[in-house]
Protein 1
Amino acid sequence: MKKLRIYLDTSVINFLFADDAPEKRDITREFFAERLARHDVYISDTVLVEIANTRDPVKRRVVPGSRSQWEDALHVAVATVLAFDLLLSWNFRHMANVERQEKINRVNCACGYEKQLLLVTPMEVLNEGENE
């Protein structure tokens, strides 16, 4: 199986430490423990800026602050231009959902980016290959 090129948005990093959402936290930790080495995984400067901009200095090292649609658009742009296979996110509202994925890929295609970008959660990557 070919290694996937995966872009992580800030929400994935955030959920490593989300004690208020233990199910997503545990899935994210399992992704890091079980799947990280199987794929080529990247973040961008946008992720680092989001983390640096949190108001809580204790969390600044690991947990991002508030999100905006602008940053979400930057994550999609980076993943599109650099031709990643997957954009991994826990952001269901703006990214990891079928409707957004379809819209993003339509716009990308209209702009000359032919590769389809999949926007999925860590759970979907954990479940890969289960039916093989």
Protein 2
Amino acid sequence: MSIQRSHQQTLALAAEKLSVPLELRDYTSMTMAINPKNLPKAKKAIEDFRNNIVKLLDKGEASEVYTFACQLFPLTQVPEPAVAKEA
């Protein structure tokens, strides 16, 4: 529950920061049809990317604090897990 609350706060803060000049922020999104079987590989690629971003931005003297957020979520209706159906 606390992780969900943290994600909600981060998304709200991202909406507030839309007024920050473009050269100081990056917001991108894309919508695509996917094969769900590839999600584990996509999640691993996102994890690797996050680690590379940290290594890149952690170099030199730190003078600013940033939040990096990356989302991947379905727009189609997702079936309920089998456990929820049995309950």
